[in-house]
Amino acid sequence: MVGKLFKYEMRAYARTLLPIEMILIAVGFLTRFIAFFENDTVVYGIVSISSYILMFAAVAVTLVMTMAVAVMRFYKNLFTAEGYLSFTLPVTPAAHIAAKLLAALVFCVISAVCVAISLSAATMGELFVEILKFIGFMSGKYFERFGVHGAFYIVEGSLLAAVSITKSLLVFYLCISLGQLAKKNRVLAAFGYYCAYIFIIQIIGTFFIIFFTSVVDAMPNFIADLFNWFYEYQFLSKHVMMLLGIFFTGIISLVYFLIIRFIISKKLNLE
C-alpha cells in the first residue's frame, strides 16, 4: 500500500513542480540563446543581466517550492478536511508518513538535477564540462590520497546527506504535527514550534561549545591524545566520524518519525 501512496504523492508533486522545473530549464536555454547575440550595446547588457537574474530567481523558486510543496502536502493531506478521506484508506499512519517522506526526497533530487541542467544549458555545457574536468582531476587526487577508503567515504557521505535531508523534512513534519494539537491558529502554532526548535538547537550548540571548551581546559592531555589518535588513524577516524553521524542522525530521525506517528495515531484532531 505504501507503493500506491507513493505513486499518488509523486503525481501530486509532479502536477505542481514539473511545470516550475520545466520553466527553470527553459530559462537556462533562453539565457544561452541571448548570449548568441552578444555585443557591446547597453541594451544587450541589460537583457543579458536580466536573463541571469531571472535564471537564478527560477533556481531559488524551484528549491523553495520543492520544500513548500513537501510541507503543504503533509499538512493539507493529513490535518485538514482532506484528512477525513486520507484516513478512510486502509493504511497505517506510518505508511502515510513514509510515502510523503519518500516522495519529498525523490523530488529534492529531481529539483537538484533540474538546477544542474538549467545552469549547464545557460553555459551551453561549458560549466558542466568544466565541473566534470574538475571532478575528474579531484577524483584522481582523492583516490590517490585515500585509496579504497575513498569509495567508502563517498558511500558514507551520500548516506549521511540522505539521512540529514530526511531529518530536515521530519523536523517540518514534526512541527506541523505539534501545531495541529492547538485548538486554533494551527499554522501559527506550527511556525512557533519551528522557531522554538531552532532556538533550542542553538542553545544546545552553545552548551556543547562551552562543554567542549571546559573539557579542553580540564583535560588537555586527554584531548591531545585524542587528536593524536585521529591523526595516527586518520582513515579509520573518518569512517568512525561519518558512521557516527549517520547513526545519531538516523536515531534522531527515527525519534521524530515515531513522535509524528504517535500524534497522528493517538492525538489526531482534524479541522
List the keywords.
single chain; 271 residues; mainly alpha; 2 domains
Summarize the structure.
With 271 residues, the chain is an all-alpha fold. The longest helix is centred in the N-terminal third of the chain and has 38 residues, at 42-79.
Could you explain how this protein is built, in words?
The chain is an all-alpha fold and 271 residues long. The chain has two domains: 1-146; 147-271, no CATH class. Helices cover 88% and strands 0% of the residues. It has helices at 2-35, 42-79, 82-86, 93-122, 126-146, 148-179, 186-218, 220-232, 234-266. The two termini are 26 Å apart.
- Mean pLDDT equals 81
SS element count, helices: 9
Major sheet: none
Outline: globular
* Number of DSSP-assigned strands: 0
Number of domains: 2
Q: What is the assembly state of the chains in this entry?
A: single chain
Rg result: 23 Å
Helices and strands, in order, run as HHHHHHHHH
Helix content: over 70%
Overall SS class: mainly alpha
Give a topology summary.
Blueprint: H1 2-35, H2 42-79, H3 82-86, H4 93-122, H5 126-146, H6 148-179, H7 186-218, H8 220-232, H9 234-266
